[in-house]
């Protein structure tokens, strides 16, 4: 089982293997984890709304800071069809993450915010002695985002917000050389911008709707993804093109306050993965179109909040995301993904008038993903699971 450190920068978020539809994760160490993301674009209960919906900052008073930290354990074993070859074992293991958010009130209606997080990418570690070590031993692509944002309340019912994402993409590919067996690592970084737009509609004090649009992030890396297959030594290039683009996405969320104790939260989301269907795979001197056909993914979530006491709130949530692959029997070795269920539970405790703390746990289970190519390394990711544990802290200045 592999332990894969994310970069040394302390605020790198959950840039790891993502089963949440494609290569995005909803889990960034905030209270949303305990809700399985339900209501994320409408909740606006702390400064993490700078990320989830900038328009939600108009619901926050004064200056507020939210910090999040989480650890996830991924149980994602890759099993080779050829039982005579050694497999890589679990390719995920333990991954730490952290995030930070700040909201600043210029006036009751005008807010500024800043967020630092990572919610896109994947990081896989294959055993050093596995059969495909001349092709890949580690593959990492992740994005770290610094997002300044602003929000304005138009009237009692409508608020709008916008954020500019300054995204640092980090790509790294390691493999053992065919002749000497020495591990070599190729890496590159890229800066790419994107935008996040948000709207908050509050028809009454018991209901609100949040809608966000996040534009595509286009990373360009200069890394040679070619390696060698076992036995034959034949050159092979990994189909990693899609992993360097974060697609545009839309999220619609709602919060309904049922009574003094109970609130109901929900989501409907979409991600534009079909835009990246046209991949190319290089096999030696030949180039052919990839058979990895991607499709748009859809997300749905339902959650509830229970105000147990004036200072204690409990969270529960369940979510489902469709797969970015049209066919789960035809997926990529370095882009494992599939339809996934997520179940979250958490609690928030108000410590005093200015500060609160929360903990959350989430379990994710995904469908199997079969990898047909290259044939010598064909196999399956069987019964993938992920376990998230997080703690968050908020302070009002």
CATH superfamily: Outer membrane protein transport protein (OMPP1/FadL/TodX)
CATH architecture: Beta Barrel
Strand % is over 45%
What count of domains describes the coordinates?
Answer: 1
> In CATH terms, what is the fold-level topology?
Porin
What value does the average pLDDT take?
86
Order of helices and strands: HEEEEEEEEEEEEEEEEEEEEEEEE
What distance separates the N and C termini? 44 Å
Low-confidence stretches: 1-22, 279-289
Proportion of helical residues:
under 10%
Structural class: mainly beta
Overall shape: it is elongated
Q: In DSSP terms, counting alpha (H) and pi (I) runs of 4 or more, how many helices?
A: 1
Describe the model.
1% of the residues lie in helices and 53% in strands. It is an all-beta fold and 397 residues long. It has a single domain (31-396), classed as Porin (Beta Barrel), CATH 2.40.160. The strands form five sheets. The protein has a 14-stranded antiparallel beta barrel with strand order 1-4-5-6-7-8-9-14-15-18-19-20-21-24. β7 (158-176) and β8 form a beta hairpin. The longest helix has 4 residues, at 49-52. The chain is elongated and about 65 Å long. The termini are far apart.
Key features?
4-stranded antiparallel β-sheet, single chain, 14-stranded antiparallel β-barrel, mainly beta, disordered N terminus, Porin, 397 residues, 1 helix
Short description:
The protein has 397 residues and is an all-beta fold.
